[in-house]
Design a protein that fits this description.
7 strands; two-stranded antiparallel sheet; Rossmann fold; alpha/beta
């Protein structure tokens, strides 16, 4: 049975160097994205394409872990941008590991059908399957490392099934925030700044500036933080993901 391979050079930031040489392949992180979701997603598409190219020569699985502690927008937009993803895992949509409908079995079937598969996972996905406690330096609750967990799970599952596997893991981390701003980013930020100054000069306080119905308006901070913006499992964005990836409606 084949074994996963390793590419020499730098490890992806934030990903521990696990196991002896020849147990996995990790790619250097050279893809970067801007502060806005669409820009970050644009850079993440490079990871998906590279992973597909690297693992498609043999029975391979590529895993791309992206930002998204509580929301899966970056993972979704990255998957839709280039159609290389076969599975998208986000915090808003739970998945299981057991049975014919679980992720491992679904993944093995996809590799058997297509010869390879790419999985895009948001960092906050599957937390109900893991355990984490405490908080980080920023005060945010700690999330368990779903990327390393899935790496171990997938390689062990294919080994148990006696199926050859080439495994690719890319974790661009938060470096995708550092890409130079696109023109649309610059325009958007300038208009936000101008609207913020207008609000301050008008005597407004306890507000942030946002856009609603294509107009920039002051929004009370209490209202802005009253709910989290998340991907709706029954919304059109997730429906587009299901149509693009052809992944099961529910992996349970």
């Amino acid at each position: 049975m084949g074994t996963p391979s390793r590419v020499g050079g730098r490890r992806s930031p934030g990903v521990p160097d696990r196991g002896p040489a020849g147990t996995t392949r990790r790619w250097p992180s050279t893809w970067r994205g801007g502060a806005r979701t669409c820009t970050a997603s644009t850079r993440t598409t490079g990871c998906c394409s590279t992973t597909r190219s690297a693992c498609c020569a043999s029975r391979g699985v590529g895993l791309v872990r992206v930002m998204g502690r509580h929301s899966g927008f970056i993972a979704c937009y990255a998957a839709l941008a280039n159609h290389d993803a076969d599975f998208v895992l986000i915090p808003e949509v739970p998945f299981t590991l057991d049975g014919d409908g679980g992720l491992p079995a679904s993944l093995r079937r996809r590799v058997a059908e297509k010869g390879s598969a790419v999985v895009v996972v948001a960092e906050g996905a599957g937390q109900e399957l893991l355990s984490a406690s405490g908080s980080n330096a920023s005060g945010n609750s700690t999330v368990a490392d779903i990327g390393v967990f899935l790496e171990d799970l997938i390689t062990a599952d294919f080994k148990a099934a006696g199926t050859p596997l080439t495994f690719e893991y890319i974790d661009p981390g938060y470096t995708i925030r550092s890409v130079p701003a696109q023109a649309s980013d610059s325009v958007y930020c300038v208009r936000l700044a101008q609207a913020a100054v207008h609000a301050a000069m008008a005597g407004r306080s306890d507000v942030v500036v946002g856009r609603r119905h294509n107009r920039f308006i002051p929004v009370p901070i209490a209202l802005a933080v009253s709910m989290r913006n998340q991907v709706a499992p029954d919304g059109d964005l997730w429906l587009s993901i299901l149509e693009s990836t052809a992944q099961p409606l529910q992996m349970r």
